[in-house]
Amino acid sequence: MTLIKSISGIRGTIGGQAGDNLTPFDAVKFAAAYGAWIKQQRNKDNYSVVVGRDARISGKMIQNLVMNTLVAQGIHVIDLELSTTPTVEIAVPMEHADGGIVLTASHNPKQWNALKLLNEKGEFLNAAEGAKILEIAEGGNIDFSDVDNLGKITKNRAYIDLHIIEVLDLSLVTVKAIEEARFKVVVDGVNSTGGIAIPLLLERLGVDVVKLYCEPTGHFPHNPEPLKEHLADLSKKVVEEHADFGIVVDPDVDRLAFVDENGEMFGEEYTLVACADYVLSRTPGNTVSNMSSTRALKDITEAYGGTYEASAVGEVNVVNLMKKNNVVIGGEGNGGIIYPESHYGRDALVGVALFLSLLADKKMRVSALRKSYPNYFMSKKKIELTHNLNVDGILEAIANRYQDENVSTIDGVKIDFPENWVHLRKSNTEPIIRVYTEAKSQTEANTLADKFIGEIGEIAKSL
Question: Staple 308 to which of 140, 298, 352, 422, CB 3.0 to 4.6 Å?
Fold first, then answer.
């Protein structure tokens, strides 16, 4: 059982001992720290926070604890109930709220939940802000309101619809062309809120929708991370239904992956590549993704005359670099699309609309579209952490061993070889070391990953 405190929020497993897991005590503790931080930001009479959740089994329990903690601090809560992470993100500025909390553990299995914390712009907190909240939580010096000054909870179930309207109004979303293309699409909503939002968006675009696991029960029918090995049912359904393609999202709908008409993975890394191809063809400019994302985005960007740059892993890091470079589109290779015209957050609804606009424009099958892009293959492996594993020492030793190569230590260790790369880093969201590689073939990518896993084991024994 685990509790992880990072710039990505407070994430942990349900049950167990307080302080070691995401128990009710911990949910209240960190919600109160966030509420105290919110009140430190501005001196005003009224404060409000938007709160929404994915469909996890523990979601309603955790949400009630969080909301009533804020109420006890005199903070008004706009309760979106079942929602998506990007929906909460757009709701915060629309409500002129002081911040937002999303109760979701993204792609983690059902025993996990988390508090994702947003600022008044509906964007993730930066490292300094996250550190301040942790400091407040550990200090325990938090004031609560008297009985005459408690906050109130207001329910608002309209925001998924408002989010869809916002997506349909984006300048590059060609609603009429999509309607005329008469697409048929299978949607795997992993029994969470993507099963609500994505079909509604598609229906507004005139798409024939086949639903698969779209009941928001929180009982995930497969591992909720949208990777090839978890999507056999979606691939089978696409072929059976003679659909144009399949869509899968993670439980909070900020990651997006596609399956082509043959049931083959388009590749979650190529979600951003395809959306960037479309956006750059209309609005040339620069792009950003994180260091663990495919080189194909760099290739596509430079083909359009733009500049590509990589950030440290973490949405807030990607967003900060996007703002600095004034990019037209960015995101993460895990299927996260960040389109500034909409908002600075990963958004599967925006990704779906841009991808459909691209297909309607190119009038080609999804398999042919994938073949039109530079072909790279990734291996994504991990090493479970143990208490005696000196991660920092291991990464430092790897960097020293390969110091004559193109090495970056901005986020863990990334080594760019001429024909491939490897990125080793400690996860922000799980107790693991991530080992990502990319090469010109799957065999080469897997071999490279296994080589570095072996080197990590060898170094660990010597430390």
Answer: 298
